[in-house]
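> example.struct
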């Protein structure tokens, strides 16, 4: 099965390098303009995070198709770091502890990165089982969601942060039921 992973377009928070997880931001004008330039392969089924930035991205790049919304594919809850950038957090002791942990500690009053990854991977597995009869599937989701899934299934193996992609970009992969071979970066 061909699988396309597309990270949502730019938001104002992305432009300002903020941690945007549970905040339901719309796309910014720059994000909309960049997405309108994309030419993506057609996919039989589009699965999308319910956040505005993802649904708007899906509507722009797949205008003729309805998206299947999946709440479990939403971005990580960054807790007390939500809406802030690294400069604003530079004097925050909890932020420094999180950085020193390599991003492994739970976000204060937010989600643990390990729980987030398990959620994304488990949801991906359910979706590919459900739509296994299809020849192609697109995921219009968040950067962290893509990174979690590819860290688990990409061959050759990539670490979580090695799977990062810019807004409005992503990967085309071949799924054989056990692994994802990245065939193209978009």
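> example.seq
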């Amino acid at each position: 099965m061909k699988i396309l992973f597309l990270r949502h377009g730019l938001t104002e928070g992305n432009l300002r390098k903020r941690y945007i997880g549970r905040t339901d931001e719309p796309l910014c004008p720059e994000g909309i303009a960049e997405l309108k330039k994309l030419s993506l392969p057609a996919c039989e089924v589009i699965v999308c995070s319910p956040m505005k930035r993802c649904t708007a991205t899906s509507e722009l790049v797949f205008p003729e198709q309805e998206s299947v919304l999946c709440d479990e594919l939403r971005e990580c809850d960054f807790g007390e770091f939500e809406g802030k950038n690294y400069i604003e957090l530079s004097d925050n002791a909890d932020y420094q502890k999180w950085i020193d942990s390599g991003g492994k500690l739970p976000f204060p009053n937010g989600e643990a990165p390990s729980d987030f990854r398990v959620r994304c991977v488990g949801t991906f597995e359910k979706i590919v089982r459900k739509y296994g009869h299809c020849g192609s599937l697109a995921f219009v989701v968040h950067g962290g969601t893509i990174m979690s899934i590819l860290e688990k299934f990409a061959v050759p193996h990539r670490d979580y942060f090695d799977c990062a992609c810019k807004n409005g970009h992503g990967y085309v992969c071949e799924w054989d039921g056990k692994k994802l071979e990245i065939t193209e970066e978009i």
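> remarks
Residues 2-78+111-185 form a domain with the Rossmann fold fold (CATH 3.40.50.1240).
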